[in-house]
Specification:
This protein is α+β, with helices and mostly antiparallel strands. The protein is built from two helices and nine strands; from the N terminus they run ααβββββββββ. The strands form three sheets. Strands 6-5-4-1-7 form a five-stranded antiparallel sheet, with no helix packed on it. Strands 2-3 form a two-stranded antiparallel ribbon. The radius of gyration is 30 Å and the shape is extended.
Amino acid sequence: MRFRFWLAVCVSLTAPLVSQASAQHLTPEQLDRLSQERQSELGSRNWGPPPTVTQAPQTLHATPVPVTCRSPAHDFEPLFAEPRRGAVRVGTAAPQIAVTDTVFQGWRQVLRSGTTFAWIPEVDVVAYRPLVDGASRACVVSGENAAGMVLFTHPAK
């Protein structure tokens, strides 16, 4: 037991010395010169043209119900599973939300994805507000992608 203690102490005291001894102490100019020498040894390399990335066009599906693009009145506004304050929180409203025309006792229904809905207090739903000043104030729900994510478009002013 005593031997392990002293071994641990010796190792912990010599560790900083070992790392300092192996560190390079070269000036930036010396490093540049070494890099140029290494590059001349390697020669030039032709990696070819950069790869072209092609994205398949997203197929949009219509939303299951008519929806309108709006914004929550406050950042990080909670979304609820049912139209009441004591209901389970199912998420947080993004800066743009797809709201339906369904209103129940002061609560507005929000389309989350596919046929999944949530509820937000009607007073907390306002006209769409862009995140960036000067950006288009127009917002349209363009549909859902194959994964069921609601997609928005922002036509020019």
